[in-house]
Specification:
Blueprint: H1 12-23, E1 27-30, E2 36-42, E3 47-52, H2 58-72
Antiparallel strand pairs: 1-2, 2-3
Bound molecules: zinc ion (ZN).
Length: 76
């Protein structure tokens, strides 16, 4: 394994959405905060969303990330 286990989101849906964000050129920042997994950042806009470690619904978390990707994918 080349990537530290702490760098992956424990929820598969959210992890897949974070991979899509990276593929679109958005910046994914892992934060070691207890409740916050990290951020997805659009550098040109200086806009970001928080990614939670333990969202109540992982499907919604992935959708939220995908919404951010749709909004910002053309900027990166
Ligand atoms: Zn943007």
């Amino acid at each position: 394994m080349t990537m530290g286990i702490g760098d992956r989101h424990q929820k598969k849906d959210a992890e897949a959405a974070l991979k899509r964000a990276e593929a679109c050129g958005l910046k994914v920042k892992h934060d070691k905060n207890r409740h916050r997994w990290g951020f997805v950042i659009c550098c040109p806009c200086n806009d970001d969303i928080t990614v939670n470690c333990t969202p109540q619904s992982t499907g919604n978390e992935a959708k939220r990330i995908d919404g951010f990707i749709r909004k910002h994918r053309s900027h990166a």
